[in-house]
Amino acid sequence: MSRTGRRGRRLVRAWDDLRGRSGRRVVDLVRGQVAVARAGAVLAHSTAFGATGRSAARTRMTVVEHEGDAARAELVRALRRVLATPIDREDLFRLSRSIDDVLDHLRDYVRESDLFGPRDLTFAVEPLLAVIDGLDELESAVAKMLDDPGSVTVAVLATRKSCSRVRQLYQARLTELFAGSLEMDTLRERELLSRLDAVGRRLGEAADVLADAMLKRSH
What we know:
By secondary structure, the protein is mostly helical. It has one domain: Phosphate transport system protein phou homolog 2, domain 2 (Methane Monooxygenase Hydroxylase, Chain G, domain 1). The protein is built from seven helices and no strands. The protein has helices at residues 3-18, 21-48, 54-81, 89-116, 125-147, 152-179, 184-218. α2 (21-48) packs antiparallel against α3 (54-81), α2 (21-48) runs parallel beside α4 and α5 (125-147) packs parallel to α7. The protein starts with a helix and ends with a helix. Residues 7-19 have low confidence and may be disordered.
């Protein structure tokens, strides 16, 4: 590209930044990444109550994971081009990485539920519903960064509440398992429960990153 062409592209990006288009583009890309993670959680949930076979879910999760990788890569490319972002670039990178971690643990849960093969996965229904709720609240918080930044904290707190619910369900189910006889299925379920707990913790980290970023922005 010629020097004139490059200068023209920079001017267009600068004009977009001044009109707020770049910030909205970044917000939309983060929301897109959250939406892919939510699709992964919905898929995992569908296996928990038997609507989707475990092998089929594992295959489908590979596609969802690729969609997540593509969404993150597109966000990273955008951050390299835009001049202004709704929150610090470093915080956006951390937020994106935490969302990616949520999807990675969901992928591992689906894969391990197929590999380990416990007889019953209904123990995962409620924790995964809490994860889905938390991702919905996180998406809502991200959407409000530009138009209603004062309400982001409320949505973030709702995300944290969902994460706490995942932890509570994890602990309650472990208590039940330890009170019974030790069987192979007990160990399998414990491993899958630990994976779901990790999903909740990564989602909590994403919420914390966004909350910290908004606090810095307000100062």
